[in-house]
Every structure is written in C-alpha cells, then in structure tokens.
Design brief:
single chain; 326 residues; mainly beta; Udp-n-acetylmuramoylalanyl-d-glutamate--2,6- Diaminopimelate Ligase, Chain: A, domain 1; UDP N-Acetylglucosamine Acyltransferase, domain 1; eleven-stranded mixed beta sheet; ten-stranded mixed beta sheet; 27% strand
Amino acid sequence: MINPFFKNAGPFSIDKLLLKSDITIDKNLKKGKVRDVKDLLNASTKDLTFFHSKKYSSIASSTKASYCLTQENLSKFLPNSCQAIIVDNVLLSMAKITKEFYPDSITDDFDNTVKEISKTTLKKKVKYGNNVLIGKNVKVGKNCSIGHNTIIEKNVIIGNNCSISSNVIIRNTIIKDSVNILDGCIIGKKGFGFFPNQSKNIRYPHIGIVIIDDNSEIGCGSTIDRGSLSNTVIGKNTFLDNQVHIAHNNKIGNNCIIAGQVGFAGSSTLGDNIMIGGQAGISGHLKIGNNVHIGGGSGVLNNISDNTKVMGYPAKNLRQFLKNNR
C-alpha cells in the first residue's frame, strides 16, 4: 500500500543513501536501487529493512528485503538474497535512512490545509457540531457524525456509520465502518521514539499509520500512536475504555475489551478475545495469545500463551497469584 500520509522521496541508489546517512560503505556492497524502508515482515525486493534483535531471527530468515541494517552476529540469519549492512547502532542508522525517505515524518505540526467543514463538500454529507475542521482529501462515509471542536487532518479516511465525538484530533489514520471515537481522543500522533542524547535527543521518524477496524470503540481521552515502520492496528469489535494509551506498532486483535488507564509500550501483538483490567501495563515487543485475561493493575513483562489468566506484578498465572496472596 502506498503511504497516503507521507511522501516517499526515493528511490535512492544504495551507496548514495548510505553516504547521506553517514554509514560506512563496505567494498563488497552490491549496488542497486532502494525503493522504500519496511520492517522485516513487510519488506519486498528493492526495500531496505533492519534486524536488531535475535528474537526476530525467524522473521529475518525469510525476509524479502534486498538490504538489511544489522550487526555482525545477526547477519548469519539473513537469507542469501538479502545483503547485510553492518552498523554500530542499528536503530539509529535506520532512523537516519528513514528520514531520508520521509523527511516530513519527524515533526507533528498541525495541518495547515484544514477548513471549516461548512466550507467543504462534506457539509451536506455529515452531521457536525461547531468549529469542526477538515483537512485536504479527507474521506468520510455515509451516516457519520463529528462533534464540536474536532479536527480531522488531511488524507484521513473514515468509513460508514461512524461517530467522531467532540474535541478529537485524528491524523494519519484509516477508520473502518461503525466505529465510535469518544470525546477527547488523539489518534495518529507520532510515537514516543527517540535516542537520548545529552545535547539534543534524536527523534525516530514515524511513517506508519493507525488502522481501526469495524465496530470498534475508543474511549474518552485515549491516545493511539501511529506506527514507526509498521502500522498500529485495533481489531474488529475491540473496545477501549477511557484514558487508554496504545503506543506505536501495537497490533490488538478482534473482540478485545481493554479497561480504563491501561498502557501499552510499543510493538506488542495481542490475539483475539482478550480482556485487560484497569490500570494494567503491557511491556513492549511481547506476544499475547488468544483468549487471555489480564487482571487489573497487572504488569505484563513476558509473553503470554493462549487461554491463560494472569494477574500481579510481574504478571503470573492467576491461580499462582491467588495462592501467593491469601
């Protein structure tokens, strides 16, 4: 899918791209054009990807990317069709390259294309409140409503039968049919990704989007960050309570129920039919299976297999938690 929100400045010759990004060029580098940057799973030929942790070795072994930023000890997991580019700091180098492809992705400035909805073609199609602002190329389906003081920024797509409440900001997002976004939500902002530096922190570009699938609901005051390279996804019929934070790259499955003030760090994958109690915290880069129940106030630090109930900090099997806390 062509990114509808960020313009790709490529393609680049791989040697020129590395030179622009202050990456040393190996004398054995095979010359070629790079069309885009993608994660290991979604990269295709002519794309560049990155591989920074052994936990992704199985995905790395089947990546279709032509080039991969990685470390010497990880390069052995890559297929012969993917040339390893060895760097000292994989994520920092990937950030520099991503910025070359998408120079507008670092900042989250307001959309200066927005107009009062009464001055757009949507005025006859949408039920709307006061002070609603709509960006260029926004698409809204049938039977939708938008509340007071809400801003829908350029290129956002909203399906049929959706309710967008008041004081909502939506950018870099695709919303499917019959979705409710309640008051005060911010959806599609950049994620909390940067490299600490004493003089000036270095931002990681976020070129992914947010996708909210059919029949879902996002509770009041919730925040959903867009992805970095991959997308942040909320599955079908998944309901978020108030003040939930979904960080970049999270994939939440279908029919999930997430209670108030739950926080997700980045890049975790959740299965279907999951229930999470209020004020639980989910660490990053985890895999949580189907039909999992997580008790309120829990701290999830490890992967959770299917059909499991956990509680506590760190979260453990519910029976074990109850036994230890009698």
